[in-house]
Amino acid sequence: MKEEESIRLDLNPVGSENENCKRKNGSEVFKLFEPRKTLSDDFGFYEKCLLFLTQAGYIPIAAAMLMTAFMEPSPEWCDTIKESDSAWQFNEHREFYSLSVESGFDCQPNSSQTTAMMSSLLMWGALVGSFVCGFLSDKFGRKPVFLGCLSMVTAGHIALSFSNNFSWLTINGVLASMGFFCGGYMVTNFVILTEAFELARSRLLVVSLNGWSISMAATGIIASLTPYWFTYHVIFAVIGSILTIVSYKMCSESCRWLSANGSHQEAKRVAFQITLCNDKREIDEDDIIILKWYEVLGFSAPTHTEEKKTWKTLFKSTRFLKPTAVMCYSFMASSIVSFGFYFSIDILPGNRYYNMALMGILKFILGFTPFFLNRFITKRIIAISSIGVCCLAAVLILPIQYYEIQCLRTVIILLSLVISAGIDPTWKINHLYSAELFPTSVRSMARGVCNAGGRLGSVMAPMIVYLRTLNLLIPNVVFAVLLFVQLVVIVMFLPDDSDKDANEMNDE
């Protein structure tokens, strides 16, 4: 066993049976190295559990990021409050009794500023967390950072459930902290997930199953059923606690990360553990000596490099600079538009909870389109089509708002849903490219930069939405311009599926 690393056996998956097979019990022959070729090969029991846990983890994350969408009561409800201080006890209109209501900041002349400030605190925290946690994930591992972020967001929900004992300054500090770990979670959960798969089509499927949209719908539904800040945070604290414990027990460190950092023995141990969990075949001591970690999993051989990568690598290397810049802007523009419509949900006609739930459901449905359409067209064309439709919808909203056509208010809802949900295929392509365009040694850092672009967009979104107090048209004009520029950037600079630069997943 001490000489395990010195043993070299050239196993070629398309070679002779003598090279790829060994005998067991004198007669039975089985292959040592079975490369993954189909979705069923890629989706074992472990990979399915990892997919479920990482995406279910978005439930407490979305609840934290979107809580301010419910904080400010509608103007009609504020009028009711002025008539009767006890109106909240009856809550006939199911308005959300938020922390800002509890603290007396809502239904005041500056209440919109308070909500915008709290939203910005969350997003600024997420911006910083994306950078920091992306670096920590590449340095210390995917699993500890992923679990640490989820547990700290859960701790934030627990803290806010006792926030009636806190000062307003302390509450805002908790919000900024939760935003930090939300940003970190959105970087690291995706990396540990995509590195568990070999096939590009499998990674596209897990991107299409991204948990944000379903968690967004769950947030709207739970907020409508429990329109009270204490119950809201307790429910998500319980969910987060359960998911943290189960994820700690079930999830393993990324073998790709372990190998890229020189821990080949540990990568092999984890690979055998995953293989046994998937119940692929029996493992004996001879296999441990002969096989490499990627052969155990059925992955293709990585291209290993001893060069240490740093933050400067992303910005000084011509190989990484263009994809980093393109993906960072695409994330930022998509985030501004997405969060802009999330935070504008209170001015849309109808029930804000159901509008948010409907947005989440539509995003989930449309999020599957890249997986199905990629059989016929490239990811780049899918992204172009998605942004093109959203840009057109944003332009169509403007004349309806400008001329204040009351009979077309429902059309504004439909167009808003088209934009908020229709941009989701581009989000999925963005996430996939941000993992596949970069090698393992800088993947989390690159994801951190891209996600920081997204978080910068989410910071800017509430500020842009606040400009509606000056003129209702301003936010949608900004959204339309951003979408048009994003369309141009994707057309000119995003690589196609067949390009070598778009398939870096195995380059370590």
UniProtKB/TrEMBL annotation:
* GO MF assignments: transmembrane transporter activity
Q: Which UniProt keywords apply?
A: Membrane, Transmembrane, Transmembrane helix
Location of the Major facilitator superfamily (MFS) profile domain: 49-498
User: Which Gene3D superfamilies does this chain map to?
Assistant: MFS general substrate transporter like domains (1.20.1250.20)
- This protein's source sits in the domain of life called Eukaryota
Q: What parts of the sequence cross the membrane?
A: 49-70, 116-137, 144-162, 168-192, 204-223, 229-248, 326-345, 357-374, 381-402, 408-427, 473-494
Q: How does it sit in the membrane?
A: Multi-pass membrane protein
Q: Where in the cell is it found?
A: Membrane
Q: Name one GO cellular component term.
A: membrane
* Any matching Pfam family: MFS_1
Chief localization: membrane
Protein name in UniProt: MFS domain-containing protein
What is the scientific name of the source organism?
Caenorhabditis tropicalis
